[in-house]
Amino acid sequence: xxxxxxxxDYRTRFGLRLGILRFGVIGLLLALLGQLxxxxxxxxxxxxxxxxxxxxxxxxxxxxRGRILDAAGRPLVDNRTALRITVDRIALSREPDRGRTxxxxxxxxxxxxxxxxxxxxxxxxxxxxxxxxxxxxxxxxPVTKNADPALLLxxxxxxxxxxxxxxxxxTERAYPRPAGALAAHLLGYVAGISGPELDRLPxxxxxxxxxxxxxxxxxxxxxxxxxxxxxxVRQVAVDARGAVTATVGENPPVPGDDxxxxxxxxxxxxxxxxxxxxxxxxRAHGDPAKTAAGVVLNVRTGHVVAMASYPAYRPEVxxxxxxxxxxxxxxxxxxxxxxxxxxxxxxxxxxxxFKPISVSGVVKEGTxxxxxxxxxxxxVQVGNRVFHNFEGTSLGRLNLHKALVKSCDTVFYxxxxxxxxxxxxxxxxxxxxxxxxxxxARAYGLGRDTGIDLPAExxxxxxxxxxxxxxxxxxxxxxxxxxxxxxxxSDPIHKLDAENCTEGWKFRAGDQANFDIGQGTVxxxxxxxxxxxxxxxxxxxxxxxxxxxxxxDPAGTVVRRIEAPVxxxxxxxxxxxxxxxxxxYDVPRAGTAAGAFAGFPLDRVHVGGKTGTAQAxxxxxxxxxxxxxxxxxxxxxxxxxxxxxxxxGGQGARAAAxxxxxxxxxxxxxxxxxxxxxxxxxxxx
Amino acid sequence: xxTLAERLVPLAGxxxxxxxxxxxxxxxxxxxxxxxxxxxxxxxLGAVLVASATRGVPGSRSSISYLERDLLNVGIGLLxxxxxxxxxxxxxxxxxxxxxxxxxxxxxxxxxxxxxxINGSHSWIVVGGGFQLQPAxxxxxxxxxxxxxxxxEWRATPDGPGTAEVLLxxxxxxxxxxxxxxxxxxxxxLVLAFTVIGVLTVSGAPRRWVVLLLLGGVLAVLGVxxxxxxxxxxxxxxxxxxxxxxxxxxxxxxxxxxxxxxxxGGVFGTGLFxxxxxxxxxxPEQQTDFIFTVAxxxxxxxxxAVILGLLGVxxxxxxxxxxxxxxxxxxxxxxxxxxxxxxxxFQNIGMTVGIxxxxxxxxxxxxxxxxxxxxxxxxxxLLENVALSTPRx
Lengths: 685, 393
Description:
- By secondary structure, chain A is of the alpha+beta class.
- Chain A contains 24 helices and 25 strands.
- Mean pLDDT of chain B is 82; it is low at 244-249.
- The chains are: A alpha+beta, B mainly alpha.
- Chains A and B meet through helix 1 and helix 2 of A and helix 9, helix 12, helix 13, helix 14 and helix 15 of B.
């Protein structure tokens, strides 16, 4: 500033003040430069890493789960593509109202309450109860099961109104039901991995497995490792809205292997219908049957051909997460707990169907001879009580062949009495009791798991002196003593409780008598009985049954064969086995099942079996109906064992035997096309 | 009639022809070419950065791309700037009151039904045809001119401005500042206030006033924050500035993403058009208020320093023009423009690198936006105007 008319003082002051501004400007620029240096040079690398995290996301690519196929290669469990509508939490969080409007709009389109949607996309954590999201917070969260494509179109047409809402094509389990076979209990179901399950995984797998589905029941659970495959990870670049802009890297998923099974869809369907028939038959007789179970085993291989439990459920209810209502329905006791697989989880007294095992036991022990004659009175004194024949009939003198065919009980009471006294004598002489029939029952595989490739199998119960004492000590005593104290003396149960309180550990002669005819403290699963009968007709081999036969990789190569291992041999002679089997072949001809098999072409299909009627309470209405059977072409060894039980179905001959007959008719094609063709022409599978 | 020798006498002992041509005092020689080059380079850089920030994003209001609109803005701005440079000193002084009144008028208008709210601030006037006007930018020019007039020439005391001038300036500033506060556009208020303080400081106003104003400014900011006179979103933006990580998806989101984007550029940057933060559009308003983040990520520390350097050149030339100005008026116009640019650039870059709170302010010459670009280039024109009126030494 130069003009001469200004005072020099003003000019000096102006220059100084301009200097202040200059310094101020330099200061501001230096401050910026310093901060830039700090951010970009000093800490640039750590910020670069943060930036990568900011816009690269790991997206888990789930592996396609393997299928489950029947023996003919028909898929019992398949995959289908499912269109799911997803919500991206991050995109929502960038909305001005944190996505509230978007969710409300989406809820309107999906016709669900907005609160439900909000819960579905809330991350699971402390105090957050399902439904919540268990997976990665960075991943779009599916909020629908398989969605209607029209719905998706409606959303995409107005995509600007639905930021963060997208669709995802995934796969979900499908059940094609070949030949109408449901097999729900065998196949099981899958569900998303749970928080605790994730926590148990090694740390490096937690992220990638966050969205996994895992088998929860049935074969899906037993063969989860085979079926699951391995999820992959795709690294994608995303923009601020969470939309994927590019794929940065990919570690592709490995699809799961297929599981081949010995199940035959048509045989399965036959069995499922036969169970329904058995229940209908029982109900026609006035029995209140609501449940049933059945097994068909290939006796040579030990593989399961069919297995069913009634009531069943639609496995679809578990697809994409089970709703609380559906879960209640499949676990309701009033509906018979459809989720329960009674063929391996139901424990019932086998009744007379146990007698081949008793015969094996008493003959092996020398208590009886198969061809000796014994009396079959209407009643026998055992201990301080008289035990009667079923319906009180006397059959005169008979050998064990006839005792099996006609199912005489009193013969077995006499053997039991004699065995019991022999054991008591041994105990007095400080020897171990033999408990021959119990031993034989265990040799037949009863009282322990069969080892089938299904989860949560029941072991059943074979009562011995030792096991009764142990049970008494652990809980029977306490319950009985408490009951005796609580109940008035007039109550009939008071006496029972009082006795059990002090003497409930005692294994009495009556216990052995009941045991030998398969009542009371013998509990078996239908599958256990089936493997026992299979051992009888397959040369004495006790086989641990299997449903799966092979594992096949997606390329179609069988990578593993699954045999049903032999886990024991029956400790009886071939002669005795043959004697018992030939007696059982007479049961449908002339014995207790003759009525049920009236008109069945036994000359074309050679059927043997044993009925069972087990008391399961004071009322005969609660009797468990059994038929354990085997069949094959005449003159050849039996091919299959079929066991059906109908709890509360009354007599074995009335409910279970007709159901088994229906199974054989279906399998061999009696009056209908054969479920498994070629069985009678010698071409055994 | 003089002889050739006589005519040659005056030349004896004088600089050579070449020297004289070089030092000839012509308008073209008076133009500050360095300033012009720096400003135009910044505009060009800005256009490139805008293109990068908006790649893949179609222009929201028309089919013309952001780059094309930015270049159009620069073109119009250069024309307006040329006019501002060439306008005569007397005419400029005469028109100053009118400019001031017009600026205050449109600031009133923007509060009425003609105004449009964008990003929480009611600071745009929709002109029509897809154009909007930001009156606050006019106010910056008007205040710079008005301050210079009052402090430099109102009573033309040889000893510089006194208390009366200071009070008049404060009064003149209070009207537009108050109107801008009503929008509310806190960034512009800060720039205007800093311009007042800067110009008053340079003007040679009594020292007690300068000290008082500086203190008052600091106290006002503290008080405003303390008594929550700020709108909710502004308080949140301020607290987000202190603790950006506390709410990474909320109001701290801009701050965090902006800082992350700048810092991830490192020394040399990702290269133009290669920034993943930029292409992912993680920084909101990136082509306008956060244009510097594009430079930070894609050009790195080197490119950012070059931009700071170019801004420094503009400020240095402005200060030089102020120092050489022939009269207090010209000097104060230049000082006003320097104060304005300096603080606005500092505030804008400062908020992207996390040393200033987030306010809505464009970066001079670089940000996309018509009104701001016009105002900036008119301000450069005013600097050139002062330069043109300064005889060469």
